Amino acid sequence: MRRIVTTAVLAALTAAPALAEQTLEGVANATYQLDPNHSFLTFNVTHNGISTYTVYFTDFDATLDFNSEDPTASTLNLTINPAALEANYPADYKAGHPDSEFENWNDALANDDRFLQADEFGEITFTSTSAEMTGDFTGTVTGDLSFRGETRPVTLDVTYNGVANPPWMGERDTIGFTASTIIDRTEFGMDALQGVISNDVAIEFSGEFIENE
């Protein structure tokens, strides 16, 4: 019995993924694709001046051409489906908004002309144009954000969290990042409900990218 238990423990340890390491050394210079199962993208506004209102995007993708030897030479392309979001609104939306053309709050937030206007502008994109290092594993990425028919430069504060090599990914690297920025929604034509929701919108990302085969 002891031998069986020992064998099982050793097998489990052998199968366990390699621990992540915050290093750039040896990380593959390659194209990486976002892992949607382990990535999160939110936007936050101040509501009524007293709370932070958070909405999750549920459909987005990104391609990262990563240069571990010179991260500033890396490029990022991100697309977001503005119609796919979760605002965690448990109330009966139609009961509280009988005149709304939308059946639920998620659809209203996505498609109403006052908000994301996804029915007219079906994609949000971010395309990087430059990057700078601010520390060993931190930096900024500047790019063009296209949203509601407007394109404006936006700078992300980015942290490289490290690399992992899960055995089920074979020899491929998995790298992780967090990123954040603040945009002014009025610059993208969204100025409804002044005083109820803030003009500043905080965007936050945390996720993993898998090296392409």
TrEMBL record:
Per UniProt, the keywords (alphabetical) are: Signal
Ranges of residues in domain Lipid/polyisoprenoid-binding YceI-like: 31-210
Q: Which SUPFAM superfamilies match?
A: YceI-like (SSF101874)
Entry's transmembrane regions: none
Against Pfam families, the record matches this protein to: YceI
Q: Where is the signal peptide?
A: 1-20
Q: Which PANTHER family match?
A: PROTEIN YCEI (PTHR34406:SF1)
Question: What name does this protein carry?
Answer: Polyisoprenoid-binding protein
